[in-house]
Amino acid sequence: MTSLRTEGLTKSFGGVPAVHGATVELRDGQVNGLIGPNGSGKTTFFNLITGMIRPDSGRVLYRERDITRHAPHRIAHAGIGRTFQLCRVFPRLTVLENMLVAVRRTRLRELLAGLHDEGEAERARRWLHRMGIEHLEHAEARDLSYGQQKLLELAAVLMAEPDLVLLDEPAGGVNPALIDRIVTLVRELNAEGRTFLVVEHNMDMVMGMCDHVIVFDRGAPIAAGPPSAIRDDPRVLEAYLGV
Amino acid sequence: MRTASRGLPLLVAALAIAYPWLVPNYYLVYAGALTVMYAAMATSWNLLGGFTGYVSLGHSAFFGLGAYGTGLLVTRLDVPWAVALPVSALLVTVFAVGVGVAAVRVRGASFVIVSIALVSMMNLVVQGWRSLTGGSTGLQVPSPFPGLHRGQTHMVFFYLFLVLLGLALLSWWYVSRSRFGAGLRAIREDEDKAESLGVPTGAYKVAAFALSALFVALAGGLYALWFGSLDPIFMFSILIGSYMVLMSLLGGVRHVYGPLLGALIVAPAGEYFLIALGETQVHLAATGVLLILVVLFMPEGILSRLTRGRGGPSIPEESAGQRLEGAAR
User: What is the number of domains present in chain A?
Assistant: First the structure.
């Protein structure tokens, strides 16, 4: 079943196209990689899917529902979560408070519920435990290492129970041990039924982790398929190496 | 330490209740009522400014509208004051929802300017609508307690403002402990990130804006009933909004009692400057100097400095300097 489909998605900034007619399809339950040279429009594509910016034309369909012009929080409620290229946590909130910001439903009773409502706090602690940072729940997020912040950012996204998770350069700026940990987490979460779309420059990670890889160049997909096919695709080699 | 932090507010509350009987004259009761009024307004302002980081200099618009709404309901429609007060405040809150939907679409310095424009527009409307509001000659509101002499009236309003302050503090405390409050703080930290986690930031900001306006409007209504004479130049003065900001910054915007502490310093200081320096503009300059001193030497507010490293009902630190820088961005 199709999880997400974009149709002719286009966005220009000052007349310069960042994403141009991007038509992409993600299937449920897959780990999808999104690769391409710097400036090829990968992050803009993420921002278009998650409603952070509005497209000039084209559509985004999630589970066959048009979410093109929905506000980001509505897209999050629909079941799409994301991390950012430069890790973003709420620096002056504690780790546990960072977790409790995520909202899947906006029922008044739930919003006015105590911040330390044990049910939600326990759920948050389970995610923190899974990330290996449960011992830091009372620390302010700004006091965490960059790698720990990356894990916290992912845990906070998962707290909103997304079915589709968009990860923007999860391996950026983190040590090899943590990369292995992130890969293991993605695989585990995928086995539990979550679909992933991962922007990443670390080719070993992408080729080892993904079921399906999409290659962007100049704002549009130029190739898509299993990693083994993408690795030797002449269009991909040309985009990356200019040969 | 924990016992002291719990006991101190109770002691302050007991002292506040006893205050009118402890002071030697009614002038000090009047000054006390004024201080408690400003404390309630600053605490209300902090429901928006402290949680979301949106600095409004235009909250005096809600003060003035609450006052005129109450005054007009009492004088034009003969509504009993105890009904006019909450009805007026609710109408202002509905108005604030409408204003908020437009105002919170912009951030930083743009929001500050929008808030200033709001208070200026309300001033012009009230001054221009002479047939209804009395225009620049003002509006006279009959005393709700005609049997009491002036000093006794000060005492009654001291307690009414004290109740309002209690409600504002309770609201702040309740919001700070809710997931709604966590969402508001997330907006202050990183609005786009909060939105991506499913926080409907627009609705949250409007709710905080309206809740904040509600208590300020109630303060305005009580002021109208207390003073009985409304002058649009004063009621819609940017200075009143500035006082709310100054008091909150001085005491500490991250702490439930911060604006209260700021009011306990700034309001009596203002009265002192008025007495010492007379009805000149010098007391305004003195207020400006105080604001500069706060930003330079007490950037995180007094309570943040005193409670650093301790637990307590506060939200994380951000200096007044950072706040003003944020507003200017």
Answer: 1
